[in-house]
Each structure stands twice: as structure tokens, then as C-alpha cells.
Design a protein that fits this description.
mainly alpha, 2% strand
Length: 389
């Protein structure tokens, strides 16, 4: 009996995994990327106009062919919701389109050969036709630019939006700042903790590792809710402070930056401790003793001997914490104030609050690119130097 092709058998074994990766990883990523650069509202409804207006010079009033195509699109459309999307999209590019379309559509549907300039003199202004031309393509970089508070001006050049019109870049910088603070706090706690865990043996090491792994066994929502109870005005901390006479009134520990950073540090601390701990286990335990025997002060021995050897774990842990924190949503939403919301909250608003899926996808793509860049750096730094050679 002949055996089957080994390659086909191997492919059959990994086929379910490939299907799973394609459905739940590759397809969602492709969808997000496509949605971030897609703007088919105009081209889907004004199909004839989009095909004709591409060759227009953008300066003089469009010729009769373009105007005839536009009238035909308006007369043939029966989907009021889709036309409403077109009107909103054009009105965002050129103010006045809402009233202009509201006046033009009924007139054209009643008389498909009506003169557009006769219906409203604004159709003799090339600026309104230019707005249609700018939005006729099903693909655009407007959402990606808007996610960074940028836009294209009348000349097509990239320019910064007017002050106060968008805060996406500010929120993105706030997200990076909070993530950096959480990373520093995790490093300040995690490095000495990992050093202590690596220096002891037996049940002491097991107890220390169990304590740091305990947050991973509990739901993120439960941990955040627990911090809400602890940090509130009548929580354990404030009761202790007022009971000991340290403060005369409750201290604001929640709905501010402090509560967000504290809770995120508690949740993400294992991702800092474990990489450092795993690297410290490979460091010979007699190095610090040898440095001390040569006259080095303990601080100098730490800075010149132990810290450089553990630097690979420190960098790996810092990148893991930072990558995890930039996408946090529940903790800032429950423990932070209005000025502490991170970019994930903005993405949720665009997706569920305003149904602007393209804007949500654009912000998600910015986070995705940043995370992939950090992951590539983490993968490079966490590689074993001996195996790398």
C-alpha cells in the first residue's frame, strides 16, 4: 500500500490552524486596513458622475456630459439613506451642500433634464463640483490624516486642522504618555522584585512568583472594579488616612490620572517581572560577591555588573508593558476622568457612538502600526544572543 504524499499530509494537519488564522487574524486586519482608506459613499451612489468627473480640470464649470451623468444619478437613486450619506460627506467638504442637495434632488427627479444652474446658482460655482471630484474615489487618506489632526487644503497639500476642530492627536499623545508612566512604574517595582525573586530559593521564590502571577488569574473587569472600591472616597485607603488623622477629608484617588496609572501598573506588573526574572536566572549568582570582593560598592556593582546583564529582560518587559497599555480601554474608562481617556475610548466612540467605522479603523490602524513596530523591536531584543550568532 502506497503512502500518501508527506507534504499533503503535513498540509492537512495544519489546514485547520491556517483556516483559524485566516478567519480570526488575517481577515479582520485586512478589513481594518481597507476600512481605514475606504470612502465609497459618493462613488457607490453617484456612479456615473464618479466615472466622468475624474478627467475634469477642476477650474471651469463641468461640461454637459458630467452634468448629465450627475442628473442621471440623482434621478435613478431610490435609496434615501445612501443619498443622505452622500450629502453628509459632501457637506463636510464644502459647506452648503446639505441645502443644495435638498433643493436639487426633488427638482431633478421631477425633471431629469432640468438645468442645474437654473435650479440653484451654486451649481455654477466650480467649488461645489470640486467637492464631488475630491470624494468621487472609493479610496481616500482623509481618515488617516484626520486621526493625526491633519487634512488636505484646497491645493491638495497636507496641513494641520484648525485648532479645536479635532483632538485625536492630543489623545494619541496622552495615550503614549500614560503608557510611558505605567511602564516606568512597572520598571521601578518590577526590577527589584525580580531581583529578590531570583535571589531566593524554595517556597520563598514560589510565594513571590505566585503573588505576581495572581492578577493574571483574575478578570480584568474584576480587578478594575476592586480598585474602584479601594480608591473611592469611602474606600479602604481614604478610611485609613482619615482614621489615622493624616488627612481631614478624603483624597481624590479615583477618576483621575493617579487611579488609572495605579490600576494599570497593578495589572501589567507581571509582564515586567517575568522577563527580567527569566534573564536574571541565567546570571551567575556569585558575580555580585566577586565584585564586592574586588572593592566595588554594592550600588556600583549593581550598575556595572548586574544591570547590564539584565538589560535584555528590562527592555523586553518595558516593551511588553508599553504595547499592552496603549490599547487599554476598561481601566481608563472606569477609573479615569474626562482628561484621562485613551485612544481606545475614542475608537469605541467612533465605532458605536457616531457609526464612523472608517475613522475608528484609521485610529485602530495607527495603533496597529505602532504595536507591530514595537513587537518587531521586542522580538529582536528578546532573541538569545548565542542563538542569534
Amino acid at each position: 500500500m502506497k503512502k500518501g504524499n508527506p507534504r499533503l499530509r503535513a498540509l492537512a494537519l495544519i489546514a485547520p490552524l491556517l483556516v483559524f488564522l485566516g478567519l480570526f487574524f488575517v481577515w479582520p486586519l485586512v478589513t481594518v486596513i481597507t476600512q481605514a482608506v475606504s470612502d465609497p459613499a459618493v462613488s457607490r451612489v453617484l456612479t456615473r458622475t464618479a466615472a466622468e468627473i475624474g478627467a475634469w480640470d477642476g477650474e471651469s464649470v463641468p461640461g454637459p456630459e458630467i452634468q448629465a451623468a450627475f442628473r442621471a444619478d440623482l434621478a435613478a437613486n431610490t435609496d434615501e439613506m445612501a443619498m443622505g450619506d452622500v450629502t453628509r460627506r459632501l457637506n463636510s467638504s464644502k459647506s452648503g451642500f446639505r441645502s443644495l442637495m435638498g433643493k436639487t434632488i426633488p427638482a431633478v427627479q421631477e425633471n431629469p433634464d432640468a438645468d442645474l444652474a437654473g435650479i440653484d446658482k451654486r451649481w455654477a460655482d466650480p467649488a461645489y463640483w470640486k467637492a464631488i471630484q475630491d470624494n468621487a474615489s472609493p479610496y481616500t487618506d482623509a481618515f488617516l490624516l484626520a486621526s493625526l489632526d491633519l487634512e488636505r487644503d484646497s491645493s491638495g497639500s497636507v496641513a494641520r486642522m484648525a485648532e479645536g476642530s479635532s483632538a485625536n492627536a492630543t489623545i494619541l499623545m496622552r495615550t503614549l504618555w500614560i503608557s510611558g508612566l505605567v511602564t516606568l512604574c512597572c520598571l521601578a517595582i518590577g526590577l527589584p522584585y525580580a531581583m529578590i525573586a531570583a535571589s531566593v530559593q524554595g517556597w520563598k521564590r514560589a510565594a513571590l512568583l505566585g503573588a505576581v502571577l495572581l492578577p493574571l488569574w483574575t478578570s480584568l473587569l474584576v480587578r478594575t472594579a476592586a480598585w474602584m472600591i479601594i480608591l473611592q472616597d469611602n474606600g479602604i485607603i481614604n478610611q485609613a488616612l482619615t482614621g489615622l488623622g493624616i488627612t481631614s477629608a478624603p483624597v481624590a484617588l479615583i477618576y483621575n490620572r493617579f487611579g488609572v496609572v495605579l490600576a494599570m501598573t497593578h495589572v501589567l506588573l507581571p509582564f515586567m517581572v517575568l522577563p527580567i526574572y527569566s534573564v536574571l536566572l541565567t546570571v551567575p549568582g556569585n558575580l555580585m560577591t566577586a565584585a564586592a570582593s574586588l572593592g566595588a560598592h554594592p550600588v556600583r556593582a549593581f550598575l556595572r555588573v548586574l544591570l547590564p546583564l539584565s538589560l535584555r529582560g528590562v527592555i523586553s518587559g518595558a516593551l511588553l508593558v508599553f504595547m499592552s497599555s496603549i490599547g487599554y480601554y476598561i481601566t481608563p474608562a472606569l477609573l479615569g476622568g474626562a482628561s484621562d481617556q485613551m485612544v481606545s475610548s475614542v475608537i469605541a466612540f467612533y465605532a458605536t457612538g457616531s457609526a464612523n467605522w472608517s475613522m475608528a479603523a484609521a485610529l485602530g490602524l495607527i495603533l496597529l502600526v505602532l504595536t507591530l513596530a514595537l513587537y518587531a523591536l521586542y522580538n529582536r531584543l528578546s532573541r538569545d544572543p548565542v542563538q542569534a550568532r
